[in-house]
Amino acid sequence: MDRQQVFAAMETDLSKSLKAFNSAAADMMTASYIIVMGKLSKLLQTVAGSRPLYDFMAETTQGYNFVEEFRGRQFRDEYSRPYIDMPEDPDEQIKFAFCMLFAIDTGKLNLENLLHTFYTDTDANAELDRFCNEVLRPFVENLNAVFIAPPQEEEQPEEDYADEYPQEEGEYAEETSAEE
């Protein structure tokens, strides 16, 4: 299959793409450590198989230097334990998390070492849970927020109470000291 055939076969329906992505993310977040790599691959396949998600991630990560960002986000807490300081900006968080997941999937970043070093907990499954809560969950929420616009609040017309209470000629309302 050449590149054009691959692009032609991509899912173009955004709602179907997001549904598949969210389902794969939920599967990964509930997976045990022993099977998580397969779930991660499936998650990334939903991005690769969706024209809107693929185009967005390609545009978003163009020119992004994950290696430099990853190195720059490694810190130690007051007990000298290493941790990764995730970006606060949703757009930066999407880039960072996606590139991290991609690096894990392609073997450039070892999941076991990553979890044992930066997400240390009682066992591998607890470490994976921490990783999913700190990296995957915000990634999924932020990516969904890009494509699902928050409901627009209907603009309420300002009410003119003066019209409701007509005053006779010469009458006026007393001024108040309340701020408007």
List the helices and strands and how they pair.
Blueprint: H1 3-9, H2 14-29, H3 36-48, H4 51-61, H5 66-72, E1 74-76, E2 82-84, H6 90-105, H7 111-118, H8 124-147, H9 161-164
Antiparallel strand pairs: 1-2
Helix pairs in contact: 2-3, 2-8, 3-6, 6-8
Cα separation of the termini:
67 Å
Q: Please identify the structural class as seen in this structure.
A: mainly alpha
Could you spell the SSE succession in H and E letters? HHHHHEEHHHH
- DSSP summary: helix tally: 9
Radius of gyration, CA atoms, in whole angstroms: 25 Å
Tally the beta strands: 2
Report the helical percentage. Answer: 55-70%
Low-pLDDT stretches: none
The average pLDDT value, as a whole number, equals 85
Shape: globular
- Physical arrangement of strands within the biggest beta sheet: 1-2
The major sheet is characterized as: 2 strands, antiparallel
**Strand percentage:** under 5%
Report on the architecture of this protein.
- The model has no long low-confidence stretch (mean pLDDT 85).
- The longest helix has 24 residues, at 124-147.
- This protein has nine helices and two strands, in the order αααααββαααα.
- The chain has helices spanning 3-9, 14-29, 36-48, 51-61, 66-72, 90-105, 111-118, 124-147, 161-164; strands at 74-76, 82-84.
- Helix 2 packs antiparallel against helix 3.
- A two-stranded antiparallel ribbon has the order 1-2.
- By secondary structure, the chain is mostly helical.
